[in-house]
Design goal:
2 domains, 9 strands, Helicase, Ruva Protein, domain 3, elongated, Rossmann fold, two-stranded antiparallel sheet, alpha/beta
Length: about 325
């Protein structure tokens, strides 16, 4: 199983991901600056960490900088350091993150958020391998590999004069694009299995029904693999059975997996779809409570046994899978 997440989950067998993996391994052998772009939550930091680990700098530091939270006042000091007295409040000298990443990799996440002045200094770092700390005239040599990432359209920012064209072209020498999860839906079962295995050490061993996997594959995942990982975490910790079914999924996932917007649909279609979901969840919970005893479950539901069984068949539920008060695989 391809796994570039170092145990954190950027896995995939979709052709587009195989190409990403191939390119990542190839660029890892050089010291060229790499720019990773893709939507939020697609795993850009994980891919950057893989490139670092596979490079000859793998034993050095992997320093992460979130450019989105840096202020104009602190960004230069954070990255390049400062000498004592360089500005008000600079009571001690600081080496900066570029120096901290010496012999390693500096990962600048959301590089598109940097101001133009800092972009110029970043360009000098890439071109000349040098930098200057605040309050110091001496130029220092940097021994660092730079990887950047962004979810923004840098080309559009260049046109808007918000991103330097020369820096853009430098970063585009080796561009890597991570696709959104909706573009590689076939990888979802693989990702679900991978994330589920991460919880084995907590005694959480669960399987997913085909209905659950189908629902997960129909959802469009705006938060990408990060959102999927959060949902799997919730399911592993909160579902009390050892089998995760579609009724256990968050409502937003289940409702969107219907294939249409319930409020934009004809009343009868929306009513029928929601009735089916309610019926399946209701029967599922009754069978759990009654440990698969159909007679008891039907009685508690106030309906006849035959009617209850008929509805079970329509929902694809089988009593024998609930024998021990938990739902298990057939």
């Amino acid at each position: 199983m391809p796994d570039l997440g170092l145990g954190q989950g950027i896995v995939g067998e979709h052709p587009v991901m195989k190409e990403v993996f191939r390119l990542a391994r190839r660029v890892a052998t050089s010291d060229l600056a790499v720019n990773i772009f893709g939507e939020t939550g697609t795993g850009k930091e994980l891919l950057a960490h893989f490139i670092h680990a596979e490079s000859n700098r793998g034993k050095g530091q992997f320093v992460v900088v979130d450019c989105g939270i840096l202020t104009i006042e602190t960004a230069r000091s954070e990255l390049f350091g400062h000498v004592r007295g360089a500005f008000t409040g600079a009571h001690q000298a600081r080496c900066g993150l570029v120096a901290e990443a010496a012999a390693g990799t500096l990962f600048l996440d959301e590089v598109g958020d940097l101001d133009l002045d800092l972009q110029l200094q970043l360009l000098r770092l890439i071109q000349n391998g040098t930098f200057r700390s605040m309050g110091e005239s001496r130029v220092k040599k940097a021994d660092v590999r730079l990887i950047t990432a962004t979810h923004r359209d840098l080309k559009a920012l260049v046109k808007e004069k918000k991103f330097r064209a020369d820096l853009y072209h430098r970063l585009q020498v080796v561009p890597l694009e991570l696709p959104p999860l909706r573009a590689r839906v076939s990888d979802i079962p693989l990702l679900v299995k991978h994330y589920s295995l991460l919880y084995q050490h907590l005694g959480c061993t669960k399987k997913f029904t085909q209905a659950a996997l189908d629902a997960l594959m129909r959802y469009d995942w705006p938060g990408n693999i990060r959102e999927l990982q959060h949902e799997i975490t919730r399911l592993m910790l909160m579902v009390e059975t050892d089998l995760v079914d579609d009724v256990d999924l968050e409502h937003r996932i289940l409702s969107s997996s219907c294939g249409f917007d319930v409020y934009d649909s004809p009343f009868k279609d929306a009513w029928k779809q929601n009735l089916q979901q309610f019926t399946r969840e209701y029967l599922h919970r009754k069978l759990l409570k009654c440990r698969g005893n159909v007679t008891r479950a039907a009685k508690e539901s106030g309906v006849g046994r035959q009617y209850f069984q008929m509805r079970m068949a329509e929902c694809g539920l089988r009593s024998k899978t609930y024998k021990h008060g938990v739902r298990v695989a057939d």
